[in-house]
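Structure request: Beta-xylanase, Acidisarcina polymorpha.
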Amino acid sequence: MLQQQDPSLPGGQSQLMKLLAFLVLAAGVAHGQAGSPLPSLKQAYHGLFRIGASVNAAQFEGLDKIADPIIAAQFNTISPENALKWQSVHPSIGTYNFDQADQYVAYGEKYKMFIMGHCLVWHSQTPRWVFEDSEGKPLTREALLQRMHDHIRTVVGRYKGRINGWDVVNEALNEDGTMRQSPWYRIIGDDFIVKAFQFAHEADPGAQLYYNDYSLENEAKRKGAAELMRKLKAAGVPITGIGLQGHVKIDGPDAIQEAATIEAFASLGLQVNVSELDVDVLPRTTKSDSADISMTAAVTSQSNPYTQGLPEEMQQALAKRYAELFRVFVEHHGSMGRVTLWGVTDRESWLNNFPSRGRTNYPLLFDREGKPKPAFFAVLHEATNAR
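Returned structure:
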């Protein structure tokens, strides 16, 4: 278990001073002094775990001239934001649209990356027709299982041997760790997860298969997820690991919670991945820390205070937060496969519109112009400090 280090203690003060000194030196690199090239995260973390980002259509189509060189230089694994979600790839009965998905996979192959598929079974961004018959009535269990099977066989089968890992089931749990009452659960029953993994394994026996969810750092949800994982493994389900989404706040969850979460799932023999990492620096607009995309809140001047840029003290707070997180990841690298940031630059982050639309957020390692932030160098420092 990781213990938090008090900066007032000699060891804590030394660690803080080392980080500050590193950031001062890194500032010169960030501003291009002496023509210094930007260090590479994927090289720094080589031998620890893969490090990656989610990519959108403009990026894998080569239209984002800011993000493309960052992706190529910094990351060795990618996830698709939307290109492989059901509504994108299978919009109507009998109709598949693989144009964007094909470009996404080709993009990952171009840069020799570990390519993620996200996601096969989710209650959101799945068209209503999936759960209904021709009269608009709920499908039977058998009919919905057949639909799930056909979709997974077609999508996973198309990229067999090319997509390396799949988020098979996404966000099946409530905040208290109980099963979400999604159409998948209501119609099929709690074995819909077992079936989804079986179908995915049949379609590509060589692919890694994961369960993916948010807020697993919270004790109740973590316990529910751990119990679900134990049941899946007891049933012989071919599950490789779990994705901790990692949509966190500037002030929590803390390092102890992060470490406990990784250790809880690693103890079950699962590979642990941080699958959608970002750090929300803006004031809370809801009482919940959930990343449920159905949540909304009105934007106010109080909830959107940094429209003219992130103040230096907040830049340093963000850097410290990322350092705290990656210190935990590095200490648990033997249990981890990858850490993926949910986006490349602050400009395209989903947190600019969640849970309030039109906010100006700063959750990632590169700013809106593609320049590395102090948080980037803090993450780099944790890799070099581990050697």
